[in-house]
Amino acid sequence: MAGGTAVNPSERSYDAIVIGAGVIGASITCELARRGWRVLSVDRNPGAGQGSTSASSAIVRFTYSTRAGVAMAYEGLQYWQQWPQHTGVCDEAGYATFTECGMATFLGDAQHHLLPVPHFDALGVPYEIWDCDETVARLGSLDLSRFGPPRQLDDPEFWAAPTSQLLGALWCPEGGYVGDPQLAAHNLRLAAEAAGAEFGFGATVVGVAGSGRAEGVVLADGTELAAPVVVNVAGPHSSAINRLSGVLEDMSIATRPLRKEVYHVPPPPGVDFEHDGVVMGDVDCGCYVRPEVGNNMLIGSLELDATDFEWLRSDEIDGCSQVLSREQWETHLLRFARRMPELGLPRQPRGIVGVYDVTDDWIPIYDRTSLDGFYVAIGTSGNQFKNAAVAGHCMAELIGAVEAGHDHDAEAVVVTGKHTGFDIDMGTFSRRRDLHGSSMSVLG
Length: 444
Description:
Layout: E1 16-19, H1 23-34, E2 39-43, E3 59-60, H2 67-81, H3 83-87, E4 98-100, E5 103-107, H4 117-123, E6 128-130, H5 132-139, E7 168-172, E8 176-178, H6 181-194, E9 198-201, E10 205-209, E11 216-219, E12 224-226, E13 229-232, H7 238-245, E14 255-265, H8 273-276, E15 279-282, E16 287-292, E17 296-301, H9 326-339, E18 351-359, E19 365-368, E20 374-378, H10 388-403, E21 414-416, E22 423-425
Parallel strand pairs: 1-2, 1-13, 2-9, 5-15, 13-20
Antiparallel strand pairs: 3-8, 4-8, 5-7, 6-7, 10-11, 11-12, 14-17, 14-18, 15-16, 16-17, 19-20, 21-22
Helix pairs in contact: 1-6, 1-10, 2-10
């Protein structure tokens, strides 16, 4: 895949500088460039999507707790269904591919499954409610007992016998996943370059210039790049960039870096999970599952157990361990093995380690800041990959409106989806919002 070497900016002055070339940063860069902006995206990594994007499970789902969240996700689906047309370029590396296998969210005590249903009804998102018998008939040999809440292996209640059953599942037939998240970012990079944007890789931002207004960025090698608009899409480094910019005191919602492990596990013998499996969200067991290439199951945590969290300081991000924790690997696999009794426990852990950028309520911040010209698209890790294309459109619309004089803080920008026509109230993602009544987990 192209893009592994540093790219030097051809100029020192731009209309906008985007910090971060992950899937959302590349999308914002592309959308601004398509609107005629001279844009430079800078990233500390050697290529697009090589940070937290590459560790994304890339699940495409619509089960969010807010109307705007559901609207964005369903609008985002339309982009994935016509991805080559959206990028509009020929990529020798191929195109990221969306697999529509459907998603089942098990109905447990947490009742998170009820949050998106009114929004599904209002927007017309297709779904079904299955009872236990239909869930087992559709998904195979699962034990739908209530095993939760999620616990660690050393908890004496981990193996406690269940006393009741789940209610069934919320089924979204159009859910699925994107098999190569890094390739998606690469596709968007080429699309942005085709529109005139530039990318500078191996470039670490150490300063944001400007006092009353953003004026550009300073790189670690001393290079100064000027632009009246700067967009922070720095993933797990976003909080550090905000600190450099002096905008933290104006934000009621914070972001923190979280080390995250995702596991690759073979399915039970005789099960072709790659082709016959579906995405599953299991609040009761505290995990999600999706098919993976090579007939594997990808299993990750929903972060419902406080002991699952491994928060990092800003100075720990780049040096955090890339070795899977055997204790956490066994914990998460055995949690789901209770749901799927035929699932075996491999001898050696396999999977990936990444660092996510997480807000206090797991809902992203897509907003302006107290520094004029400085914008943020942060707190997106874990649950916003699916929204990359529509997030780029929404941020470009928001930036254009604010730069034209619109007071977004007084009257939130509402963006209309190009494919669905849904109204997306960007005030939902405000930096100044109260903690939202979300799942308070990666489910959003």
